Amino acid sequence: MSRDVYPLLDTIRSPADLRQLERAQLSALATELRAFLVDSVSRTGGHLSSNLGTVELAIALHYVFNTPEDRLVWDVGHQSYAHKILTGRREGMARLRMKDGISGFPRRAESPYDTFGVGHSSTSISAALGMALAAKQKGETRKVVAIIGDGAMSAGMAFEALNNAGVADADMLVILNDNEMSISPPVGALNNILTRLMSGKTFNAARKVGRHMLGVAPPLLELARRAEEHVKGMITPGALFEEFGFHYYGPIDGHDLAALVPTLENIKKLKGPQFLHILTRKGQGYPQAEENPVLYHGVGKFDAATGIVASPSTQTPPPQAAKKRAYTRIFGDWLCDMAAADERLVGITPAMREGSGLARFAEQFPDRYYDVGIAEQHAVTFAAGLATEGLKPVVAIYATFLQRAYDQLIHDVALQNLPVLFAIDRGGLVGADGATHHGAFDLSFLNCVPNMVIMAPADEAECRQMLSTGFHLDCPAAVRYPRGSGMGAIPADHLETLPVGKGVALREGQDVALLAVGSMVAPALAAAEILNASVANLRFIKPLDVELVLRLAKSHALIVTLEENALIGGVGSEVARTLAEHGIHTPILRLGLPDRFIDHGEQGELLAELGLDAQGIVESVLKTRKNHAPTKNSGTP
Known about the structure:
By secondary structure, the chain is of the alpha/beta class. It folds into three domains: 9-36 and 48-196 and 237-285, Rossmann fold, CATH 3.40.50.970; 322-480, Rossmann fold; 504-627, 3-Layer(aba) Sandwich (Rossmann fold). It has 26 helices and 19 strands. The strands form four sheets. The protein has a seven-stranded mixed sheet with strand order 9-8-10-11-13-12-17, with helices on both faces. β12, α21 (460-472) and β13 form a beta-alpha-beta unit. It is globular, with a radius of gyration of 27 Å. It starts with 14 loop residues before the first helix and ends in a 10-residue tail after the last helix. Residues 196-218, 223-235, 312-322 and 630-637 have low confidence and may be disordered.
């Protein structure tokens, strides 16, 4: 970009450059930075509305604090783009979230200014407390700041950290970025407290007047002080955080640099745990995002001048596109149909109504829809409680977020053998969000849990069948499906089920048998045409179709397992264990995700790199047969 467009931003290569500016120049810099964000993200895609809301905050933090010596810990990372730009990564924004480009989240390996890697919510206060106490233990003087949103503040982990920090005598600042918005509209009692902000402002103003008037009468002043504490607890959020041991300040306008900078400068001088409450607006400065912050939360490429424009309803999609519906929509449609058929069904989401496909269900069945906020652990145990009373809970959750509720899944659901259905979205590689969001481990960590039934559909029709199957079981069940769409199979209108633990042979070939699960069935079929191989869709990870596996192992020279999941503990491991237990020595080649974290990039691009597309499968099979020594761990290193 030319200096005519961004004259101030062009001078900023690091926070040290930012601190050379006059305070009066910061507002102009914010305008330039916001314009650059809209232009940049419209070209690459990414998280937009949340980042537009924290432009002034990022500027103020780097202007006031001596970063990176002073530590900034951003929660989730959806609001860190301005931070990245100000810390020397402006050119890198051109390849944001692309393969070999910069991450969409703070990442320690990427920059010394990224002090903590994030992606899941509500971790910032815990991490910042650790940093603050580490500095104290080492005798080092530095400031530590945690920046957390009101949505992330609803999670239990944030309150566990507050509870610890308030008595730990740590020099740290928690900034609550209150934009009245998480990904889905925020819910819960905490949100109701935070919505009383105008009353808080009014009360603070009245308090100043009252103190001035009562200053000459100490007894009355003491009486007023006591009354103030009671009233404050009723109409402002400050008392909540002060009870945790923090000194509370705010709320203040997070877009007003004239107020934000001096406030931070004053707080910087204080010792002990401090809490600053700021009010911001998602999408600030870009009217389309201000009007619809959910739509502009995570965006693909779009025209910055016109904004995101829906395709005309009169436009006829290509025939193949018309057949395909994303798995998320398949789930949402099934949920509404099953709810109409069975009044016991209730739907639960941890703050992912739109992302998990529950919007229509929430509208049609509001009394049976529960958004518990960003609280995955609570969501699972809450579902268990519902199940004990005869209801049939369906927990819609991303694979990466289910990791956060693993103990609850084991202890509260599986141990008690409760009929909770987990609709696990984004199983496998998700693309641009990268390592923090890939669903790489769920088949492995679910497979070892007793009482679980685990399914993965090869196409949209099978997904609907599996959801119905899991719903009718009297035990915990999981249906795991990937981001995007499948092979385009049109689901039936009725709610049919599948026989539990039974796979299906899709193709008869010679020598090689490809045993695929879920998203790997399609590339397996394509590879089989070249290899003249047999193909089986396992359907069930647990219970495994042992009869099918043994039959194919006895009639083929090589067994190949295919899964979009970690090789360790996954489907291939279970097939190998089954063969070993039955004394069958047919060589087995296991293809899946290797024992490392996978970076961000396009889904197809990543799968090809890992050898999990049709071409990669063919090459792995031919190499194995040529060497006459099947490799047990065959994921691309």
